Amino acid sequence: MYTFSSKLKVFSFVLIIVGLLGIGYSFISAPKTTADVEKILEAEAHGHHGARDAHAHDAHGHDAHSAEAHTEHEEHLNHVLHQLQNKPWAALYVAAIFFMLISLGALAFYAIQNVAQAGWSPVLFRVMQGITAYLPWGSAIFFILLVVSALHFNHLFVWMDPELVNPESPKFDKLLNGKIGYLNEWFWLIRAAVFIIGWNLYRYFSRKNCLAQDEASDNAFYKKNFNISAGFLVFFIVTESIMSWDWIMSVDPHWFSTLFGWYVFASFFVSGITVIAMVTLYLKSRGYLEHVNTSHIHDLAKFMFGISVFWTYLWFSQFMLIWYSNIPEEVTYFVTRIEQYNLPFFGMVAMNFIFPFLILINTDFKRITWVLVMAGVVILLGHYVDFFNMIMPATVGDRWFIGIGEIGSLLFFLGLFILIVFTALTKAPLLPKRNPFIEESKHFHY
């Protein structure tokens, strides 16, 4: 049995506390009124005195013009206020969805191993189950965030503004009004609840059957797991697409991409596999998992490499087609990201493709622990930046920077993730001893 080392436990608590302080600070320090925003903008414009004086001189004596300018200025202040108030919420949202989807990616990988009746992976099943133990907690926190958004505590989802679908309002948006049957708070929350409950039910029963199989005299529980895993994968592939439209794509409600569900899937799937590899390497370094050999590690690294390439193919397909066709309502998505998010947008491609590709293409490197850990850390940071790029431009616009809120949210969820995952690993033996393929898995070499 695995015992949770006190050092790691203390480390996870430190991350949670530091993270909570960072999150709290980011909410407290966010501007409350347009007057606060005025001060921030004035501080930013401190270096542009000449330009402002000239502008003031030019505006003098034009009453109609100055009234118009005043209205425009007020609108701009409100816009920036919304962006800056969104920033702590968006930081929390990105980290919450990222960690929840890592455990969902590991769950999907586990289900695929069951359905494929893979002979190499059963020695890693308890590691996968440990990582998926985060899903109930992570999805509960995430669902609370969705409810809070639906109750208008933040402005993360533009389409939730009732003015936009009110034909009397000057803000009326014909396009969003056409989507009201699908994009409305109640239906949106009901869908979210169905997805989250479905994933968690599979997680609960597949683990229960796997543990029961250890004590069983036949393979009945194994067969049950095979059947529910097949059912889950059908449910998963449908809900995963809808989830990516609902929780990520709808922050840009005018824009859509038919490839988006696959793109999001590739991002969190490779992250989930990377975490499986990292946790396995950690346990191995502590003297656990004696049956896991370099061939198992090599296989996980092959998946990290393969899905990174798959992600790149999807990223390029989406980007190139939209860029090449240059249709205004499609291309705005990438224009915003290239103009305002240049470094994270192209940096992510280097972190998620170029770096893992150059390192993991080498067969020998796939078996070296420190190389894999380095590649894994870069892949995980790269996919965090990927989610950052998907959410931030629509919610905070050009007001982004990686500040205390972003780092605090990341540390909080990382601490929680470590605490839950490693606690779950102590609850059951690390070897599923009655799995029909366990002997093959123990002696897996190539």
TrEMBL record:
Keywords: Membrane, Transmembrane, Transmembrane helix. The chain crosses the membrane at residues 10-28, 90-112, 133-153, 186-205, 226-248, 260-283, 303-323, 343-361, 368-385, 400-425. This is Quinol:cytochrome C oxidoreductase. It comes from Flavobacterium azooxidireducens.
